[in-house]
Design brief:
Layout: H1 4-7, H2 12-31, H3 41-47, H4 49-68, H5 71-79, H6 84-95, H7 99-109, H8 114-138, H9 143-146, H10 171-186, H11 193-209, H12 215-236
């Protein structure tokens, strides 16, 4: 497994550098779209401004936590605070970051608006493809494999299939934050950003609670989800066909 020791070194600095590097790598690819944009990145960020500012503050807080605490410290801080209530609801919360949830929602939206459904599906496909590439590139161990000699100390939720490989970054968290960006971009009432950011946080926490991911994985997934979706929306929504009358109707209208 490449980067096994480096990625999960007990040094918070190493982990922080890894997160920043993966974010820069994938977001620099997105910058290539900038040359053909009519809707600028600035325009997209302006439309999601409350969500984006709150997310940056949250991200800074996460980086501070990573500088102060090790991977193990953060993992056990979550894993040792399990309750029957959380054991019951967290599997359902984590499913909200499942790609199938987006596809089902997009299928329903197709009945009313092709453009919105297309934006949702393509945003999911672009961001999820990027996260899968990152997973196989880093090939980082998940908690079950990382703590393979300490499994008796870990709490696992019954009925949840615990994975072992391709931990970094978290795909569920990426999907949740990318969805938050897209919906905030589309809705007129921007106060929805509060619920959408909370949704992303809850999905990310569920991935740690269920021992599917580490804190670093969740941060990396959120960064990729937010920034890749911003670049993609800025590019695809500026295409002429996206604003044609035919694309702003659905199967039922």
């Amino acid at each position: 497994m490449i980067f096994y020791e480096k990625y999960y070194s007990t040094s918070g600095y190493i982990n922080l550098v890894t997160i920043v590097n993966i974010a820069i790598f994938f977001n620099s690819i997105s910058i290539c779209l900038f040359c053909t944009m009519k809707i600028s990145i600035k325009d997209v960020i302006q439309r999601i401004r409350p969500f984006f500012i709150a997310y940056l503050i949250l991200l800074c807080g996460c980086f501070i936590i990573k500088l102060l605490y090790s991977t193990d410290d953060i993992y056990f801080a979550v894993n040792t605070r399990h309750t029957d209530f959380l054991d019951t609801i967290e599997p359902y919360i984590t499913d909200l970051g499942n790609g199938w949830t987006n596809i089902i929602i997009a299928a329903v939206i197709t009945l009313y608006n092709y453009r919105v459904a297309f934006l949702m599906v393509t945003t999911f496909l672009v961001t999820s493809s990027a996260v899968q590439l990152a997973k196989f590139f880093f090939d980082a161990p998940r908690p079950k494999l990382y703590f393979k000699d300490q499994l008796s100390k870990l709490h696992f939720v019954k009925g949840v299939d615990i994975l072992s490989n391709h931990s970094f970054p978290s795909g569920h968290t990426l999907t949740a934050f990318a969805t938050g960006v897209l919906i905030t971009y589309l809705v007129k009432n921007k106060s929805w950003w509060i619920l959408l950011l909370f949704y992303g946080i809850m999905v990310g926490f569920s991935r740690m609670y269920l021992s599917q991911h580490f804190f670093e994985d969740v941060i990396g997934g959120s960064v990729m989800g937010v920034f890749l979706s911003i670049f993609w929306i800025g590019w695809i929504d500026s295409r002429p066909f996206m604003n044609s009358p035919g694309w702003n109707r659905g199967l039922l209208r």
